Amino acid sequence: MKRTGRFACAAATALLLCAPSFAQTNAHAKPSAAPAVHRPEPGATRLESLSRVLRDKNSNWAYAQLGAIAQRKSSGILGQRAALALGFYDYQRGEFDKAAQWLAIAQGDPLLGDYDLYWQAMTKLALNDNSGALAEFEQLRSQYPYSVMTEQALQSLGTAAIAANQPADGVAALEAYAGTRNSSQLLLLRGELREKAGKPLDAAADYEAVYTRFPLSDQARDAGGKLATLSAKLGAQLQPLPTDARLARASKLFEARQWSDARNEYNMLTPLLTAQELERA
Fold first, then answer.
1. What is the per-residue pLDDT across 123-140, written as a single tens digit (0 to 9) for each?
2. Residues 139-179: pLDDT tens digits?
């Protein structure tokens, strides 16, 4: 899935523990806060180098050295960041029990705490501790509301909510996030959660938003299929899509040169149109 690449990219960036973009980001501050001045801790360059080596073959020696740093009581924040690097590395290898141990050591990092909490939650999800994962994703949203991991965390929170059979928790998190309405992924996810929570009409509203407002997205086709299924179940309870919204969708498909999809949309619209709109269709 496309979002997997975003997860890997974000986490790989976190492994470059001295990168200025992260050193200047305060996860607790509002976006308007002035960036902090970055002064690398002693040993940070070596830590970054070892973290890079983890991505190479035959990196056992780097793993061992990072492990020694992480477990040394005097290592302080560098030990936490070494543990974060190892936790992500083991997660990627499917060594989830080991990852959980390293990520527990990394907990409390003042700069990368949101990354650690995210990967702790992802590890619990991989270990089928769905309720524990959901609780940690909710903690991440509460403790780091302006984290750069926000949308990834919400996607994973929704997955955890479905797996834990607590869809209402996922709905609440997505409703509280202002950016949901501008994301086809999050809108589709909220629709799925609302449907599982027994709110099919609310779910239909989200599917309609994806289908009409984001016709070029990967999620639009899924939303259309889900709408058709709900329409068959709900009958007259579900109002048909507004004609102007469907025309706008067809126009976007046409402008994007998605000829087949545009033709299908216009074909379905012709019985509903008159005069100039019918001529254009």
1. 999 999 999 999 999 999
2. 999 999 999 999 999 999 999 999 999 999 999 999 999 99
Alpha-carbon distance of 137 to 170, in angstroms, equals 10
End-to-end CA distance of the chain: 34
Pair 157, 186: CB distance under 8 Å: no
* CB contact at 8 A, 14 and 88: yes
User: Are the CB atoms for 187 and 169 separated by under 8 Å?
Assistant: no
In angstroms, the CA 209 to CA 231 distance is 15
